[in-house]
From TrEMBL:
<dbReference type="Pfam" id="PF00183">
    <property type="entry name" value="HSP90"/>
</dbReference>
<feature type="binding site">
    <location>
        <position position="460"/>
    </location>
    <ligand>
        <name>ATP</name>
    </ligand>
</feature>
<feature type="binding site">
    <location>
        <position position="120"/>
    </location>
    <ligand>
        <name>ATP</name>
    </ligand>
</feature>
<dbReference type="GO" id="GO:0016887">
    <property type="term" value="F:ATP hydrolysis activity"/>
</dbReference>
<feature type="binding site">
    <location>
        <position position="265"/>
    </location>
    <ligand>
        <name>ATP</name>
    </ligand>
</feature>
<feature type="binding site">
    <location>
        <begin position="186"/>
        <end position="187"/>
    </location>
    <ligand>
        <name>ATP</name>
    </ligand>
</feature>
<feature type="binding site">
    <location>
        <position position="171"/>
    </location>
    <ligand>
        <name>ATP</name>
    </ligand>
</feature>
<dbReference type="InterPro" id="IPR001404">
    <property type="entry name" value="Hsp90_fam"/>
</dbReference>
<dbReference type="InterPro" id="IPR020575">
    <property type="entry name" value="Hsp90_N"/>
</dbReference>
<dbReference type="GO" id="GO:0048471">
    <property type="term" value="C:perinuclear region of cytoplasm"/>
</dbReference>
<dbReference type="InterPro" id="IPR003594">
    <property type="entry name" value="HATPase_dom"/>
</dbReference>
<feature type="binding site">
    <location>
        <position position="124"/>
    </location>
    <ligand>
        <name>ATP</name>
    </ligand>
</feature>
<keyword id="KW-0809">Transit peptide</keyword>
<keyword id="KW-0547">Nucleotide-binding</keyword>
<dbReference type="GO" id="GO:0051082">
    <property type="term" value="F:unfolded protein binding"/>
</dbReference>
<dbReference type="GO" id="GO:0032991">
    <property type="term" value="C:protein-containing complex"/>
</dbReference>
<comment type="similarity">
    <text>Belongs to the heat shock protein 90 family.</text>
</comment>
Length: 794
């Protein structure tokens, strides 16, 4: 049998909370040794100790006078053994540059919320257990060591040491180098930026967990971290040692038999002087309860306990004599109650997953805590939903609507969110299958789904083919909408505003991508309108506000509320008090076009031809056509192919004209957006450009004057040039981009010449003046100072 070395026994004792030794006898076996206590009151007695490798559990007897007395058995626990106990050589490694920067920031910049280190390390331990359990489904030999899947945390408050041991997947030597010496650069860059952004507000350690660098949070509180780990893939156990403020770390083989792990990882944190308070058992217990309550593996903490027992009391001899006279009293010995203290593991978290509990038993606070712990969030969710479906397909789920997005524009199109954690019969499978369980526009929903019907070796391909998943997906989507509706209906309007600000775009994407759910999405949309420029309204509110004879929902798409409010298309509608939705987000127009209608009312773009405001008067139209028909033809002749036709407008009141888009082509807004998105040559967009109709306002003085000109002098150059300018002006005011802005500028200056000259002189005089070269006054020439030569002489 392999024996413990004397040296490892000493190191074990050195780090033990309970044992200060004077001497150590040669160990008897790999787990049994004797030591002589150095405590004054033990009077140099010998103690017998049994130690198990895994958690350094030490069983010690009551004191012996010699070391040959038999083992009896009361327990105490040692903390991790000192690190220098090993004989094996250490190899030194440099951290990747990113890790060094990160460590430097963690050690030197993060001072608030340091306690999150425990949550992060427990979360890594839980991930390692999840991985083992998952792999164990197909490779049962991985689970052959009869070790429970759990996490054990032990503290040594005198020395400021915390050990966290999990029986998870562990790491091979190469994995230690890959996982704890390097990090994905994208994550770090984001983390460093977030850190910089939040620095003024007091950098918060909470940020760590969100960027996949949780392990390094150990250095928030530790000056030295040891990771001793044993992977089932390797015969050997390795120890990684890193120190705060060092750019290197070491790896060596664990040769100390007392520290061998059957499987898994033990982290030993040697706390900084100011952070030793974290090594109090009660503090650790509190942190676990606070932050890691819902980890789905048992977390045990090492706690001092006590039980009361009756012990006999040594009697005073005088009293005993007195009592001796009384025979019955002699039989009853005096006792007292004493509290016997001992240390033992205590289960500290709730081991039943929250989704397996009855929703009636779970409080809102518990859901919020579960959410924060599971998804590394520090804000509470806006809503949650806990449900079970039975029958055709059985699964349980808890879903959440977050209160912040954390997703960029690209993430919405191509989400890689890890927001849905899929379990099969309580075994965590993956958080990579969001896309199979939710459409991408709902990828912001977070939660847990636990199915009883899927196979444990489920893959993306299986999910994509599975009828069960299709049914699950439908139910999950329905539940997600119920949650969002709940927020929309809540009395607190702010919540929905927050939701809309963060996820409004996602729902609009849903209008485009999920026709089946239009009925659920549409009532959730919000827009500004001509009657509500500061507060967004719902489509229901719009419909309620419709005029009794109004048939359609009117909208205008533009780049801002201000430009929407000032568009000429709006003039008649404002006069008639008809509300118009302002679609100012680039995605709005396509979303609304996909919806087509809401509550059987069609969406109508007021910038497109054939606008019907429900006020048709055929006689009057005929009359106006007769009066202005010739003008329309004359203008069309001048504008040629630039416009499809010239018509009399029913939507203008103060502008002379407007350029409306054809019914089936792009609006001015869409044309602008498409041009902005096309790189390089935009001529290939021409075919999608809609036909344009030039509408004139017969009541406007310019149109009336031009009508006169059309009748009397249709070939007059100035009148024709006025038509050109009118067209260009309509182009701009209708939201289109003029084809030749410089030429438009020239036309405006020319017209200004005429206007100004008409008031203060003749055109020819004005033109003459304008053509003259700039006049340089003589006095200026006289004042030119010639250079002064050296010595002050000319
Ligand atoms: N207890 C452990 N057991 C096994 N492997 C671990 C353990 N702790 C950390 N690791 C490995 O180290 C890697 C780095 O951990 P780190 O916490 O920095 O990032 P992460 O776990 O990938 O991201 P996050 O912290 O956001 O979960 C992990 O991905 C894992 O492979």
């Amino acid at each position: 049998m392999h024996r413990l070395s004397k040296r490892s026994v000493k190191s074990l004792l050195r780090s033990s909370t309970a044992a200060r030794y004077r001497d150590v006898a040669a160990p008897i076996s790999s787990s049994h040794f004797f030591y002589q206590s150095a405590d004054a009151d033990s009077k140099g007695r010998w103690y017998s100790v049994l130690t198990s490798g895994r958690c350094d559990v030490i069983e010690s007897t009551k004191p012996f006078k010699t070391r040959n007395e038999p083992f009896l058995g009361c327990r105490f626990e040692s903390t991790a053994a000192a690190s220098d106990a090993s004989d094996s050589p250490s190899e030194k490694f440099e951290y990747q540059a990113e890790v060094s920067r990160l460590m430097d920031l963690i050690v030197n910049s993060l001072y608030s919320n340091k306690e999150v280190f425990l949550r992060e390390l427990i979360s890594n331990a839980s991930d390692a257990l999840d991985k083992l359990r998952f792999l164990g489904v197909t490779e049962p030999e991985l689970l052959k060591d009869a070790v429970d899947l759990d996490i054990r945390i032990q503290t040594d408050k005198e020395n400021g040491i915390i050990t966290i041991t999990d029986s998870g997947i562990g790491m091979t030597r190469q994995e230690l180098v890959d996982c704890l010496g390097t990090i994905a650069q994208s994550g770090t860059a984001k983390f460093l930026k977030a850190l910089k952004d939040s620095k003024d507000a007091g950098a918060d350690s909470n940020l760590i967990g969100q960027f996949g660098v949780g392990f390094y949070s150990a250095f928030l509180v530790s000056e030295r971290v040891e990771v001793s780990t044993k992977s089932p893939k390797s015969d050997k156990q390795y120890v990684w040692v890193g120190e705060a403020n060092s750019s290197t770390y070491t790896i060596r083989e664990e040769t100390d038999p007392a520290k061998q792990l059957p499987r898994g990882t033990r982290l030993t944190l040697y706390l900084k002087r100011d952070d030793k308070g974290y090594a109090h058992p009660e503090r650790v217990e509190k942190l676990v309860k606070n932050y890691s309550q819902f980890v789905s593996f048992p977390i045990y903490t090492w706690q001092e306990k006590g039980f009361t027992k009756e012990v006999e009391v040594d009697e005073d001899p005088a009293e005993a004599n007195k009592e001796g006279q009384d025979e019955t009293a002699e039989k009853k010995k005096k006792t007292k109650k004493v509290v016997e203290k001992y240390w033992d593991w205590e289960l500290t978290n709730e081991t039943q997953p929250i989704w397996l509990r009855s929703p009636k038993e779970v409080s809102k606070e518990e859901y919020n805590e579960f959410y924060k712990n599971t998804f590394n969030e520090y804000l509470e969710p806006l809503a949650s939903s806990h449900f079970t479906t039975e029958g055709e397909v059985e699964f349980r789920s808890v879903l959440f609507v977050p209160s912040v997005s954390g997703m960029g524009k690209d993430d919405m199109i191509n989400p890689k969110t890890k927001n849905i954690r899929l379990y099969v019969k309580r075994v965590f499978i993956s958080d990579d299958f969001d896309g199979e369980l939710f459409p991408r526009y709902l990828s912001f929903i977070k939660g847990v789904v636990d199915s009883n019907d899927l196979p444990l070796n489920v893959s993306r391909e299986i999910l994509q083919e599975s009828r069960i998943v299709r049914i699950m997906r439908k139910r999950l989507v329905r539940k997600a909408f119920e949650m969002i509706q709940g927020i929309a209906l809540s009395e607190n309007r702010d919540d929905y505003e927050t939701f809309w600000e963060n996820f409004g775009k996602h729902l609009k994407l849903g209008c485009i991508e999920d026709r089946e759910n239009h009925k659920r999405i549409a009532p959730l949309l919000r827009f500004f309108s001509s009657q509500s420029e500061n507060e967004m309204i719902s489509l229901d509110e719009y419909v309620e506000n419709m005029k009794p004879d109004q048939k359609d929902i009117y909208y205008i798409a533009s780049d801002s509320v201000t430009s929407a409010r000032n568009t000429p298309f709006l003039e008649k509608l404002l006069e008639k008090d008809l509300e118009v939705l302002f679609l100012v987000d680039p995605i709005d127009e396509v979303a609304v076009q996909n919806l087509k209608a809401f509550k059987e009312k069609n969406f109508i773009d007021i910038s497109k031809e054939d606008l019907d405001l429900g006020d048709k008067n055929e006689d009057k139209e005929k009359e106006i056509k007769q009066e202005f028909g010739q003008t329309c033809d004359w203008i069309k002749k001048r504008l040629g192919d630039k416009v499809a036709s010239v018509q009399i407008s029913n939507r203008l009141s103060s502008s002379p004209c407007v350029l409306v888009s054809g019914k089936f082509g792009w609006s001015a807004n869409m044309e602008r957006l498409m041009k902005a998105q096309t790189v390089g040559d935009t001529s290939n967009l021409e075919f999608m450009r809609s036909r344009r109709v030039f509408e004139i306002n017969p009541e406007h003085p310019i149109i009336r004057t031009l009508t006169e000109a059309c009748r009397s002098t249709p070939d007059d150059e100035e009148a024709l040039r006025a038509i050109d300018l009118l067209y260009d002006a309509a182009l701009v005011s209708s939201g289109f981009t003029p084809e030749n802005p410089a030429q438009l500028g020239g036309k405006i200056y020319e017209m200004m010449n005429f206007a100004l000259a008409g008031k203060w002189g003749t055109v020819s005089e004005y033109q003459q003046q304008a053509n003259q070269k700039p006049h340089i006054p003589e006095t200026v020439e006289a004042e030119v100072v010639e250079p002064v030569e050296a010595g002050g002489q000319k």
